[in-house]
Amino acid sequence: MNSTRPHSQSGITLQFRGVTKTFYDRARSVEALQPFTTDVAAGEFVCLLGPSGCGKSTLLNIVAGLELPTAGQVLAGGKPITAPGSERALLFQEAALFPWLDVQANVEFGLRQQRRSAQERADMARSLLAMVHLTGFEHSAVHQLSGGMRQRVALARALAIDPAVILMDEPFGALDAITRDRMHAELEAIWSATGKTILFVTHNVREALALGDRILTFSPRPGRVVQEVRVTLPRPRSLESHALVDMAAQILSVMRTAEANAAALPA
Ligand SMILES: Nc1ncnc2c1ncn2[C@@H]1O[C@H](COP(=O)(O)OP(=O)(O)OP(=O)(O)O)[C@@H](O)[C@H]1O
């Protein structure tokens, strides 16, 4: 995998310091996120788990530099984040590929902007497509691919710019269960090979347990962390293992309590 990428950049730290977000428009304000503080180690895989609307995407967008916090700050590798940067790549539930480009050209997109030679771009794209098991699909059109394949292309395109941090916003939420399990295994293999820092948003407890070194569970909006779990189960993890099923039940019970508490509050 590293034949064309000898200097692949591994992960960097993320430090969240009292990160808060309230959205304002003319009529009202929406408090999306209460002060959030944590340290993510370089190369750590952290899952942000919570119900719809609890502010998970908002937090990811702040790390991506697409939103600014209302208060607090996030530091990436010790530097405050104020704008998007090539050391942070964001992937969405729907792979945002360029439909007019074929698979290889999509992966090469960021490399073109880095002014790499055509040969270098092609070598890197082919190596990344092999890593995500898409050898043979280099010249397929995006619309010919399944959802799982599109996510693989999006991952290869993100890896092409060699980010230190990968931000994933429910990337496998639209996939069937079997494809999702396969994607989990592939993502885990890529993460172990590259040592990138990953922040992964999901509302699926078992997905968080399959992947995360650490799971931060959020309450319904305004999001605040109601539980932090370090997952020390050996990898690769079996979703059927008793230990994982027990942990899932325990996390779900915390989520249900947070949901009930939120419902009991006046609107
Ligand atoms: N630009 C915006 N203007 C106003 N309110 C917003 C804006 N973006 C998000 N919100 C609100 O902030 C809250 C948190 O939204 P966010 O998308 O971060 O939640 P989420 O946990 O990612 O939800 P989901 O899992 O459904 O994607 C929601 O109530 C949402 O309506």
TrEMBL record:
Keyword DNA-binding attached: no
Domain ABC transporter: 14-245
Keyword field: ATP-binding, Nucleotide-binding, Transport
TM annotation in the entry: none
InterPro entries: AAA+_ATPase, ABC_transporter-like_ATP-bd, ABC_transporter-like_CS, ABC_transporter_ATP-bind, P-loop_NTPase
Keyword ATP-binding: yes
Molecular function in Gene Ontology: ATP binding; ATP hydrolysis activity
Protein name from the UniProt record: Probable ATP-binding component of ABC transporters
Organism: Oscillochloris trichoides DG-6
